[in-house]
Amino acid sequence: MRPALFAILALLAGAVLPAAAQTVSDQYDRGSGERSIAYTADGSRDPGRPVLTFNASFTGDESWSGVTLAFVSAGDENHVPSARFAACHSVDWIVDGQSLASTRSVHQGSVIDGELIEMIAQDVTPAWVNAISAAQSVRYRVCRDEYALTPGDIQAFATVAAKLRSATRSAYRPGSVSAASTAPAAGASREVGYEGMQWRPKSKDSGFR
């Protein structure tokens, strides 16, 4: 189930990430002029944890960045599991023992081949990324369940922070609107699409449970 979910999130992020190691992806689309930065957290290899992804996009003077947590609840041929986070999906971040301000989280769910995939998304700012990248420890609580980023995740966010600064500088033009004024309003997370999930094999012999 876990490798399938990695591939799903890679498709949603717009890039196929290596299965052996998570790296910070940085891509530029010459056609649209969009630069996309993405990262999938190391800790996502643990089946008891959510898959955490970071995504950012820059097109001209407009920018957006956010994190998505994906939880999988396995069902069977006769039973679809109930949503765990539909009614309670707040995400609180604790950096070096101190609360880090974040936006309202948005929950979406979809049933794929009998598995319930719940996604919780939050918009984040460059300041949020900078705080994560400079931390010694980062924990986050989803409703009542608590998790932590690995040292590798924090190091990767340092790379992300540097790339965000580069993207912001390259997108700046004299007389343009500032990054702060183009940032999305709190709670205005982009809608998470599920189109990329349709690649999954439907056969019960496929190995994807």
Q: How would you explain this protein's 3D organization?
A:
Helix 2 (126-133) runs antiparallel to helix 3. Residues 1-7, 11-21, 172-189 and 191-209 have low confidence and may be disordered. The protein is α+β, with helices and mostly antiparallel strands and 209 residues long. The protein is built from four helices and ten strands, in the order αββββββββαββαα.
Outline the fold blueprint.
Blueprint: H1 2-13, E1 25-29, E2 34-40, E3 51-59, E4 62-73, E5 91-95, E6 98-100, E7 106-112, E8 115-123, H2 126-133, E9 138-142, E10 145-148, H3 151-171, H4 179-182
Antiparallel strand pairs: 1-2, 2-3, 3-4, 4-8, 5-6, 5-9, 7-8, 9-10
Helix pairs in contact: 2-3
Structural class: alpha+beta
Give the overall shape.
globular
The biggest beta sheet is recorded as: 6 strands, antiparallel
The amount of helix comes to 10-25%
Beta-strand residue fraction: 25-35%
Side-by-side strand order of the widest sheet: 1-2-3-4-8-7
Low-confidence stretches: 1-7, 11-21, 172-189, 191-209
Number of helices: 4
Mean pLDDT value: 75
Terminal Cα span: 5 Å
> Measured on Cα atoms, how large is the radius of gyration?
17 Å
**How many β-strand runs?**
10
Order of secondary-structure elements: HEEEEEEEEHEEHH
